[in-house]
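Work package 3, deliverable 3.1, input record:
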Amino acid sequence: MLKVENLSVRYMQRFSPPVLAVDRVNFQVEEGEMVGLVGESGSGKSTLGLAIMKLVSPSGKIVGGRILLNGRDLVPLSEKEMRFVRGREISMVFQDPMTSLDPLMRIGDHLIETILTHEKISKKEAKERAIKLLQDVGISPDRFYDYPHQMSGGMRQRVMIALALALNPKLVIADEPTTALDVIVQDQIIDLFKNLRNQFRVAIVMISHDLALELEATEKMAVMYGGWIMEFSRSVDIAKDPLHPYTKALLKAIPNIELNDQKLISIPGHPPDLSNPPKGCRFHPRCPYAEDLCREKEPPVHVIDGRYVKCWLFGSDRR
Amino acid sequence: MTNTILQVKNLRKHFPVTKSFLERLISGETEFIRAVDGISFHMKKGEILSLVGESGSGKTTTGKLVLRLYKPTSGKILFKGRDITHLEGEELRSIRRHMQVIYQDPYASLNPRMKIGDIVKDPLEVHGIASGREAKEMVLDVLEEVGLSPSDRFYDLYPRNLSGGQRQRVAIARAMITKPEFVVADEPVSMIDVSLRASILELMLKFREELNLAYLFITHDLAVAKYISNRIAIMYLGKIVEKGPTEIMFSKPLHPYTRALMSAIPVPTLGGRRERLKLKGEIPSPINVPSGCRFHTRCPYAEDICIKKEPELVEVSSGHLVACHFYSS
């Protein structure tokens, strides 16, 4: 249902050269699927999420590629046309529910307002829908008149999810939806996403820096680094047999409670400066397998058993 | 007991809830946030003890109490056998030279207007350890040690010139320059990119070897706690609910809260989710602490006694203590 093709996003900066935060990325999401976008800060994962909603302006601009939503390209759409896409077809959940909810507005009114802005129905019908939405996300209707500050972090995030679902979108983009929450609440929110997915066939793109969480929660995932998608495949394949050297290195760098006497190995060096990215493969300065070719030429995307990997190690031409 | 660096006995910190004049007229009584509500533990020299809990569990307040950045409401803190609970002024400062802190946010914990060299040098001057040329030499040495090399280049930079990982190295250098025996590390890697976390943890371990220093490691992340610590204490609403050696805490967790926390940690290599011990709701407010066992409102096994009586922390095997009625006999 969502197909991102060769998408690039550039940010203009006042005192430094422009940054290509997302650089010709490709991935797709099927109906009802939970797909992860994982990466460290500066990898482009949040920009990619915002770009799908066409929310990168004014400092950013989509400079190439297509965003096909059920076959229709969103890139050429005007801001006015996008207003009918946002909320109805794609919606978004952000990391911090405290700053994305109006502190002076009761959560019920938030929901009613969202519904009435987009749909011509009576206030009574909107209220019924709002109560139903709260129930769908596990909030009892007697919290309808609560203000955001009266709720816990997890509850507020549930309200955000209810708002995102208010107009029955087919795709929800969730940017670090559990990062501000504790593990037990994080787990509850992931459960909620899974239920919603099963119940309403809504597809979820979950953006996170937490590789372990993404590997557990999603069906497919894209590992991003320096504006590129380095690896895209079923999450279980990445968990059991990561292909890209970056993914492999990340898995060795994070603690795993199932292992005893684990030795953590951090990845040497630093993430690339995208206003002046390294030549060739963007990971080569930190890659243990880097060869001359990697330092010179950008690696192509290889497809191996339905898995996508952007690395020189995998071409049949090189084996 | 010469091997003990820190002893905490029945420590409490209650913060009064600020109210408006009108609210005071209506309700009369002052309410308290019972952030830390009677905890005891000890630490040996060179030991790493992790305090693990959710937000609101009181772990950060505990760290600030033992550093005497807060005044305890009651209880005792003994540092190397000396009661520091009520120390003030110069006496407190002389103790602080031996206890340091590393905070979570390297963007907020470094003064943006100070050069790296001056930030790291500051403790030397505050404690009168060294000044001038000698101090500068010591700063350059410790910058090299934390991997900010060449140190003379980093000396004149400002925090804004550094990445998050490098800033945390500066914070570690500042903590280590007085050669402390005890360091509180409050979520030191939570804001660091995952690819660099291991190197920060390694650096902290290196200083432990060198200085035989003890860390009170405060974290919400049990996976990191497992990696770094000798012992783990799990906090819930201002109390320690279970503590013990790290291996035992992971191989034989007893308290339902510990088990729920452990089962909620994502495991990267399984390609699926593990069996969960699921809890309802979220941590209650520390203003209205539930009666009896304060965990009973979320515990899937709670019985009558749990609502009525608060469980004591009892030892179930060597060094492994749990506060739960199901294990008290």
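The radius of gyration of chain A is 21 Å.
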